[in-house]
Amino acid sequence: DSGVTQTPKHLITATGQRVTLRCSPRSGDLSVYWYQQSLDQGLQFLIQYYNGEERAKGNILERFSAQQFPDLHSELNLSSLELGDSALYFCASSVGQGANNEQFFGPGTRLTVL
Amino acid sequence: AQKITQTQPGMFVQEKEAVTLDCTYDTSDPSYGLFWYKQPSSGEMIFLIYQGSYDQQNATEGRYSLNFQKARKSANLVISASQLGDSAMYFCAMREDFGNEKLTFGTGTRLTIIP
C-alpha cells in the first residue's frame, strides 16, 4: 500500500458525460501528479500540483482540468468524454521537489467510456 | 524523440534465475533521476528503485539492483533469484531535474516467470 488513495476504483460512463476522479496523497506529501495509461499512448503525464498551485502541465486535453485543495487532495475533472478517454488514471504524490523525489502511485481509477 | 527506450516487449525467465530488463534513455540535462516501477496484473504501480545521475554507486533494493552506465545512457534493472510473484509489467522512467518534475515512461517489458 503506497498510502495514496484514489476513488472511485472503476467508473463506467457514456460519451459526452463529465466525471470527477479524486486523489488523496500520502500524509505529508505536497505534490500531486496525474497520469493517464492507455493502450495506444502508454503512460503519460497530465498535470502536477504543488501545495495547491499548478506546477507543470503535460499532454492534458482542454476538456480535462484539475485542482488541488487546501487539504492537499486533488480532483481531475474530465468532460465531454470520448471513447478514446477510456484509460487507467493514476494519481501519484511526492514530498515536494528535488532530485531524488520518489513518486508513489495510487491504485488508479479505471475509466470506461461507452 | 523518445526519451526512454525499453526494447524488450516480453521476457520469459525460469524461476530462481536472474533477469536483466533493459532501459536506455536520452537527455541533455546533467541532473536527472531514473526509476523502475512494477505493474502487476492488478494494475497498481509499485516503485522499485531509484538512481540519481550523480550517484557514484549503483542503487540496490533487496533483490533489485540497477546497472547504471552513464556513458552508455543505460539503466538496466537486475532482479536476482526471480520468483513467480515477479511476473508483471516493468516500466523504466526518467525525471529531468531542470525541466518539470514529470516522469517520462518507457513502453514497458512484460516479464513472465516460469515455474
Molecular structure report:
By secondary structure, chain A is mostly beta strands. Chain A is built from no helices and 11 strands. In chain A, strands 2, 4, 5, 6, 9, 10 and 11 form a 7-stranded mixed sheet that branches. By secondary structure, chain B is mostly beta strands. Chain B has no helices and 12 strands. Chain B has strands at residues 4-5, 10-14, 19-21, 24-25, 32-39, 46-52, 60-61, 64-69, 74-79, 88-96, 104-105, 109-114. In chain B, the strands form 3 sheets. In chain B, strands 2, 5, 6, 10, 11 and 12 form a 6-stranded mixed sheet that branches. In chain B, a hairpin with a 4-residue loop joins strand 8 (64-69) and strand 9 (74-79). The relative contact order of chain B is 0.33. The chains are: A mainly beta (114), B mainly beta (115). Chain A binds chain B through residues 2, 31, 33, 35, 42-45, 48, 55-56, 58, 88, 90, 92, 94, 97, 99-108, 110, and chain B through 31, 33, 35, 37, 43-47, 50, 52, 54, 91, 93, 95, 97, 100-105, 107-108.
Order of helices and strands of chain A: EEEEEEEEEEE
SS-based class of chain A: mainly beta
Largest interface: A-B, 28 and 24 residues
Largest pleated sheet of chain B: 6 strands, mixed
Task: Tell how many strands the DSSP assignment of chain B holds.
Answer: 12
Q: Which percent band covers the strand fraction of chain A?
A: over 45%
Topology diagram in text:
The complex is a heterodimer of chains A (114) and B (115).
Chain A (H helix, E strand, L loop, with lengths): L4 E3 L2 E4 L5 E6 L6 E8 L3 E9 L2 E5 L6 E5 L5 E5 L8 E8 L9 E2 L3 E5 L1
Parallel strand pairs in A: 2-11
Antiparallel strand pairs in A: 1-3, 3-8, 4-5, 4-9, 5-6, 7-8, 9-10, 9-11
Chain B lengths: L3 E2 L4 E5 L4 E3 L2 E2 L6 E8 L6 E7 L7 E2 L2 E6 L4 E6 L8 E9 L7 E2 L3 E6 L1
Parallel strand pairs in B: 2-12
Antiparallel strand pairs in B: 1-4, 3-9, 5-6, 5-10, 7-8, 8-9, 10-11, 10-12
